[in-house]
Amino acid sequence: MHLLLALVAAVQQLIPSQSLSATARMAVVTDAQGRDSTLLRVLAINDFHGALEPQVWPWSGGRQVGGAPALKPWLDSLARACLCTSLRLDAGDEMQGTPVSNFNYGRPAIAALDALGIDAAAIGNHEFDWSVDTLRARMADAHYRFLAANITDTTGLARPDWALPFTVIERGGTRIAVIGLALPETPETTTPKNVQGLAFRDPVAAVKRVLPQARAAADYVIVVAHIGAFCDADSSAASVPAGPTACRGEIIDLARGLDSGSVDLIVSGHTHSLVKHGRQRDSDRPGPVIRRRDRRGGLRPRCGPPRSARTDRDAFQRSGQSRPRAGGRDPHG
């Protein structure tokens, strides 16, 4: 299961902290009075795949780790530690992958994400594994919005009423627009008949289409996408984000295709791979940093150069495994 922590902060001064590890100290930011000046902390997960219970992972040394009971206090503690506005996102593929979730058509996974306090989610390709009707039933169960700006009908002239392009969340006086993206290859990565009549359009064009409205409505704009990337092995093991040629994939193409400063953060998923990538778009305002957790599960925070009244982005993610799919349709909706 991938875990991703994204930190959006106003960086004015970096100071050491005795309570944090050497690598984590860089993530502490203060104002002139010594107060934490983080403006927004984004906590996100992706590719949950119904992983409700602890299990052994290749990197966990034979120990059972993870699961929803472990995620809840971890996310809560990170939100409390910030003393700032926080937001919780999911980058898709929530339900499909374990017997307890599959045999109940994803209901337990949605209940778990409700309990985790998720605020918005991208629509993953495996959300369609049981039919659109079942997906819509799970959407009705959720206390958060499912988002996909790039889903339309096959003509491209209309979108389904259940495929919201973005939502605006107001938290602590801060307005955050979250734009969702689905995987363009969804018809090839789920049962094709389940997405008949739907088209999964170009992500860059979809974001640009809704961006003016989203930017006008919010203080921050975040893209949460069930779209990923792959990095060279050496760059994935490095302690600093990879350069522009070390990582490749649709989420990297998305970041490069957007105008400088138009999006404040990109949260990605889908590829179940280690990604540490930072892209400096110009000297005034950098593009989003896409960064995932290392193979040992250790968090490696990083902050960019100090920028007054700007934002800094950090993301952490842990690698996961592919899960089996289950066919069929929820007879109870």
Question: What would your notes on this structure say?
Answer:
The N terminus is likely disordered. With 333 residues, the protein is an alpha/beta fold. Helix content is 21%, strand content 25%. The longest helix has 15 residues. It has a single domain, classed as Metallo-dependent phosphatases (Purple Acid Phosphatase, chain A, domain 2). The strands form six sheets. Strands 7-6-5-2-1-18 form a six-stranded mixed sheet. A four-stranded mixed sheet has the order 9-10-12-15, with helices on one face. Helix 1 packs parallel to helix 3.
Provide a compact summary of the structure.
By secondary structure, this protein is of the alpha/beta class. Helix content is 21%, strand content 25%.
